[in-house]
Amino acid sequence: MLSDLLAAGARALEVEQPRRLRAWVWRLLIRPAPAAPDRAARIFDAALAWLARTLEVDQPQRPSAWGTRLFAPAAADALPPRLRWVPRLVRTLTLGARLAIARVPQIDHDRLGKWLEGAADAPWLTRTPVKVAGMVVCAMAFWLAVTTPFNWVSQLVFGLALCLLAIQIRNTPGTVPTLILMTLALVASCRYGWWRITQSMDLEPGWEMVLGSCLLAAEIYAWLIMLLGFLQCAWPLKRPPAPLPESLAQWPFVDIFIPTYNEPLSVLRPTVLAAKGIDWPPEKLRIYLLDDGRREPVRQFAQEAGVQYLTRPNNTYAKAGNLNHALALTQGEFIAIFDCDHLPVRSFLQTTMGWMLRDPRCAMIQTPHHFFSPDPFERNLETFRRIPNEGSLFYGLVQDGNDFWNATFFCGSCAVLRRAPLLEVGGIAVETVTEDAHTALKLHRHGYTTAYINMTQAAGLATESLAAHVGQRIRWARGMAQIFRVDNPLLGRGLSWMQRLCYSNSMLHFFYGIPRLVFLTAPLAYLYFELHIIRSSAAIFALYLLPHLVLPHITTARMQGAYRHSFWAEVYETVLAWYITLPTTIAFFNPHKGRFNVTAKGGLVERTHFDWRISRPYFGLVLLNGVGLAIGLVRLVSWNRFEAGTVVLNLLWTTFNLLMLGAAIGVAHERRQVRVFHRVAARLPVILLLPNGHTQRCYTDDYSLNGLGLELAEAVPLAPGTNLQVTLESGNVEHAFSARVTAQRGNYVGVQFTNMTMRQQEQLIQCTFGRADAWSRWQEQYASDLPLRGLWEIASLGVRGYSGLAQWALLEARRKVAGWGRRRLAAAEP
């Protein structure tokens, strides 16, 4: 009877070998018959739902919800009663470790920091014999720590000691703890590099030697950039503004240059009107609109705005030529330059000119570039004002570090230059497409100083699309490679050694394309072809590698955590590596090839879409790594079980690469811009004049060039289309503007300005974008950097990138199938 039932079931389910249990499991759970229900999917879904209910995961479809519940339960609600034994078990199992840690005396980091800073300032340390002896001893200790061979136990203890020491020091304030962390990171990285060169290279001719040498070269490049970055940013200067003379008669004449080529008036107008509001004696301030597009509407606008209009018959040397043409036609002792989308605040000249007057050899003062609109990374990954902007590291830390070494770069905008030194070096440099950095290099070669004031004094528009962003970075990378060839900072006269290293680091940084591509494909050599490009056991490799990875991340998180979070540099490089590789290579071998491309600003992403064209390289790399991951899993369970550690390490490396590529794909998912005018969140006092004649004091929730979002103290019924008047303050002066209600939700009211004259537009900018403190607190809202949290965030973005890609691929497939069907129906009609 039982055998008959089994036979009937086997026929119904198409079990080919009913006497074998594996055949039933295969058919029931893995590969059901076409007509049978997918029991595997049902069982999996039921198990997942039960686990979600048990762990109280609110959104089981989101990986981040599982991660929060499993790894950070304190961030969620308390565990249910039936699972409260889990943390008790963990506490019991870790009792010994916690007791050992409790015996370690707690460190008073503030006290330790003061002691270290005081010890470093001890007078006896400044004596030359002591300094020489200290340098010799430190160099010998460093050499021994890097080159002494250890067995695996000694290497494990050494690596753990370095990591534990770094963890203890990382929260200690002061410069000396930072230098100690840098030293620990360099010891770990140099020891790894020494081991890689002397013990892990395959020197037998063949593919393993070739590919292993490529990986080693990429690692040496990354190590060099890390070393130069440490030197560049170890002592950020944080220069404060210098006071101006009390007598206005001693304030100098300043010309303001606003170059433009093809940007629309909607971008130009706010910048010109903001420049008119700069707080400087009007008789000593001249504003010039430099139109390389020779457009009649721009000339008419300049005339209406009361600024000078300059143009030329050609576009030779692009922006550099445009500035040099204006330089020959103007006379101001100083020149302030703003890109046509950068709106200066009214305190710009009062903040910068003090150092020009204090130091007659100072040829340039640079201030940060700040963007009040999200760039493609911030908009498409939804990190705007949560994660520091890509440029925050350069303008927040690197330029302060450059300033310490008198190596501040000119960045093309938001800067003041002294006319005489600029003319002495031949004007703005025209030999490369990054004329700004090259001009600063020429000024430094002539012995002039530069300065950086890390106070945001202007704000502009970020690139709207990933394609525009990539184009802008290609120009920067090509230009820096050109400078490295035609005016190499390591060669020639006039520069100090630290100036040479600061410039070299900024130029070599843009050669990351090839090394990043090597890191994205290196594990595939083993996964595809079983090539051992690192000759070592997996355990020894991990013992040297982990301190090399962990300690630099701890150090950089301390140094630059407020300006760039951990692992975001890898995301930026992954997105751009493919596109900058060829331009930098061509510029290196043929520096005069290439032309200036204008970065489009003021555009609008009108619909949500996926940029398939720009993301093609990411797809290729994802395919290579995805196939490699599948092959690696087969190797792990079948082909290469005898070296499972090597397989696991390559699988982890490939998984990391796939997550980075997933984040890159997420950036290519262009999200629609809902508003034409970008809004800035700020709380400003407003007086609202209602239609019934009553007034109400309220505050802005946000503002733009087109309207305000208002937060009322109490709700007032205002129908859309209601006309009213809003009053804003600029200093102690009130300015009234006519407006129309566009929306109301409870206490929130959205209004749009109406019938604005040019004078009112200028007043509006002075009340909003042109305020001296408009951007002073922008940086304060970012959370501090934690490397593990950064890794988790990048991993989540990577998974979300693949999810978004799958959705768009499905939509694209449906669209094409629907189009094909419509074409067939149309062809079938008589």
Task: Indicate the topology.
Elements: H1 2-13, H2 21-30, H3 39-55, H4 63-71, H5 85-93, H6 95-103, H7 109-120, H8 128-147, H9 152-169, H10 175-199, H11 207-233, E1 254-260, H12 265-276, E2 285-291, H13 296-305, E3 308-310, H14 318-329, E4 334-337, E5 343-344, H15 348-358, E6 362-366, H16 376-380, H17 392-404, E7 415-418, H18 419-424, H19 435-445, E8 449-452, E9 458-459, H20 466-486, H21 497-508, H22 513-521, H23 524-529, H24 538-560, H25 568-589, E10 609-610, H26 616-639, H27 644-667, E11 669-670, E12 680-681, E13 685-689, E14 695-703, E15 707-712, E16 723-730, E17 733-745, E18 748-753, H28 758-767, H29 787-828
Parallel strand pairs: 1-2, 1-4, 2-3, 6-8
Antiparallel strand pairs: 4-7, 5-9, 6-7, 10-11, 12-14, 13-14, 13-16, 14-15, 15-18, 16-17, 17-18
Helix pairs in contact: 8-10, 9-10, 9-24, 10-11, 10-24, 11-21, 11-22, 12-13, 12-28, 20-21, 20-25, 22-25, 25-27, 26-27, 27-29
